[in-house]
Specification:
Elements: E1 4-13, H1 16-32, E2 36-41, E3 55-60, H2 63-71, H3 73-79, E4 87-95
Antiparallel strand pairs: 1-3, 1-4, 2-3
Helix pairs in contact: 1-3
């Protein structure tokens, strides 16, 4: 079974306090759902029209686990802190190669 990954890119964070409140709830919810943080921070260098923005990469054992983590009560509670104009980001859930 192929692993799955959350890929999140933050274009901007307008309310750092609300973002920190989100992170305080999101990390334990993601880890409790089987997620493992692989990358969490800003790029050391960008190329090819890349944006110097925060990137988060989280690994899950399967696509089912990754989707369930996102839709679970714990993560959905964390997402409430990002409502409105707190952050601009995009998120993808992708399947691994093998």
């Amino acid at each position: 079974m192929a692993k799955a990954y959350w890929v999140v890119c933050y274009h901007s964070i307008k309310n750092q306090d609300a973002f920190q409140a989100y992170a305080k709830l999101a990390a334990p919810a993601i880890q409790a759902a089987g997620g493992k943080y692989l990358v969490r921070g800003n790029p050391a260098k960008v190329y090819e029209s890349g944006m110097n923005q925060r990137v988060v990469l989280i690994e899950f054992a399967s696509m089912q686990q990754a989707l369930a983590a996102h839709d679970g009560a714990g993560y959905q509670e964390a997402l409430k802190h990002l409502a409105g104009d707190v952050v601009k980001r995009d998120m993808r859930i992708v399947e691994g190669m093998g």
